[in-house]
Design goal:
The structure is a single chain. The chain has one domain. Helix content is 70%, strand content 0%. It is built from six helices and no strands. The termini are far apart.
Length: 158
């Protein structure tokens, strides 16, 4: 019986994976693939991986990421742009799945540390992938100024 429940628990990982894939399709269509690097989108992928691997630290880190991700999404996306179903699934669905699985996984004292370290890894990897692969050097994006969206000033063409 316990093995059956463990399998069912791991299969929940298909939900955040589906949310991430829906966002991928949306951003592919509108030409904004760089937006997949936002923590809420990566968090769904991390949550799916944590559930599939039954890795508590990954699940906890992803659950922590959903909290500011939802607030930022409501303020800067939901109120200022059109409603997109895949975006709602990624943000609202992601936090719902995270809260459901946290009932079983629970939170511990160092989960915030894991979440911060994973954030630093994601930020560094994202910066390298977006900028470093093309120019061979990192660019100070803060000096470029805000151009209306996440990484909208970067040319992603090869």
């Amino acid at each position: 019986m316990a093995g059956r429940q463990d399998t069912r628990f791991r299969l929940i990982g298909f939900l955040p994976l589906t949310f991430f894939l829906a966002q991928t399709i949306h951003y592919w269509r509108v030409g904004g693939m760089g937006n997949l690097l936002w923590m809420c989108n990566v968090g769904n992928l991390l949550l799916a991986a944590g559930l599939f691997l039954n890795h508590r630290e990954l699940i906890r880190a992803a659950a922590i990421w959903t909290i500011p991700g939802l607030a930022i999404w409501i303020r800067y996306v939901l109120f200022e742009y059109d409603f997109v179903v895949s975006s709602a699934l990624a943000h609202v669905g992601g936090i719902i799945v995270a809260l459901i699985v946290l009932r079983r996984v629970r939170m511990d004292r160092i989960a915030w540390t894991y979440a911060f370290v994973w954030y630093l890894f994601n930020d560094s990897a994202g910066s390298f992938w977006v900028v470093g692969y093309r120019s061979g050097a990192f660019v100070d994006l803060a000096r470029a100024g805000y151009r209306g969206g996440c990484l909208s000033g970067i040319d992603f063409s090869l």
